[in-house]
Specification:
It contains four helices and no strands. By secondary structure, the protein is mostly helical.
């Protein structure tokens, strides 16, 4: 139970940030596509669309992102322990730098989690469930995953250092 209470707050905040950014990027990608074909979208409509998308995507895309991040972060945590053990067993001075690699590893895990989610959804269902993940919107979704992973890596690294 200590594992859950120690990591859940950091996971929840990183998931919430990842999902919120992914939803925001999705909404604004759609708005951008509408403005590209000369459809006027007011600021009130932009805000309303963004909030509606956030609420509408939460039970599907939000849950999928949570599961993908959970698996990615569990694997990354295991990998960090393996790397730490490797550096310590070699009595290398580089083990003190594991904190910076750790954060990068979690950011990469967040990106990979979103790549897998978006690719799997596209391959299995043969549709783009997230319309904002087309074209350059795909890379914005990956950015959301990277930011969430970065936050998780920083937050849990800080906790491990001072606990």
């Amino acid at each position: 139970m200590g594992f859950v209470t120690r990591y859940f707050p950091s996971f929840f905040v990183s998931w919430l940030l990842t999902f919120s950014l992914a939803s925001l990027f999705h909404s604004q990608y759609i708005v951008n596509q509408l403005t590209n074909i000369d459809i006027a979208v007011s600021w009130q409509d932009r805000i309303s669309l963004t909030l509606d998308d956030w609420l509408g995507l939460l039970p599907t895309y939000g849950v999928i992102i949570a599961l993908a991040l959970l698996l990615a972060f569990l694997f990354s945590g295991w990998l960090v322990k393996q790397l730490k053990g490797y550096f310590v067993s070699r009595q290398s001075t580089k083990h003190t730098n594991i904190k910076q690699y750790r954060t990068i590893l979690f950011a990469g895990a967040g990106i990979i989690a979103l790549v897998i989610v978006l690719t799997a959804i596209g391959s299995i269902m043969n549709i783009h469930l997230i319309a904002g993940a087309r074209g350059w919107g795909f890379y914005l979704q990956l950015l959301a995953g990277g930011v969430g992973g970065l936050l998780f890596g920083k937050a849990t690294g800080f906790r491990e250092e001072y606990n």
